[in-house]
Amino acid sequence: MKIFFTAILLFAAMSFASAQTTTKTTTTKTATAKTVTTATSTTAQTPDAKAVRAAFDRIVDGIRKSDVEMVTGVYQNSANTIYFNNNGTVTRGWEQDKQNRESRYPDVTDVKLDVRDVRVEMLGTNGAYVSCLWTQTQEYKGTQESASGRMTVVFRKVGNAWKAVHLHTSPDRPDAARPVFPSERTPLPN
User: Fold this and answer.
1) For the stretch 134-147, what's the b/e string if a residue is b when 16 or more beta carbons lie within 10 angstroms of its beta carbon?
2) Domains, the chain, ordered by start
């Protein structure tokens, strides 16, 4: 397991270094002849970044529709696909995630999922992640539910398709009883 996480960190670091080459510097002259230099990331407009965003949007749309095939179709069908769930559990493998969704989705109706602050970050040519904040309401077995949190989905290019290989979602207001380092109980100012 330690090797798996080390490999992911190494891949991300190498890909991040590669992605840095997609940053361009723009120099413009203003009306007062001042030169303004701005670093602008171009990755958000690349065809791959748009494809990653489209794949992420399919996951979101599938959740809204409680459509198992739409959601699981975006994830890589692999025993190595891993999901860190909002409730603190871990789902290991695509097949287990699909079974979980197949058992839960028939009882889920009236899903409203709002994603905000969506950010696509390319990690070289074969890796990317999408992060966002989310709020979801739904009915589950006739009972209204709501939750909100943060989410990161890691994508890998498999052939010509962008496949999600890792999901990490967590509540934005965790239970006060949840174990947290004492030094992290009070948030620092931004």
Assistant:
1) bebebeeeeeeeee
2) 43-172 (3.10.450.50)
Question: Residue 61 to residues 83, 148, 166: CA-CA distances in angstroms?
Answer: 18, 17, 18
Cβ-defined contacts of 139-147 (< 8 Å, 24+): 139/108, 139/109, 139/110, 140/104, 140/107, 140/108, 141/107, 147/86, 147/171
With 0.70 as the threshold, say if the pTM is over it.
yes
DSSP state of 64: H
Give 123-154 pLDDT, tens digit per residue. 999 999 999 999 999 999 999 999 999 999 99
d(CA 36, CA 33): 9
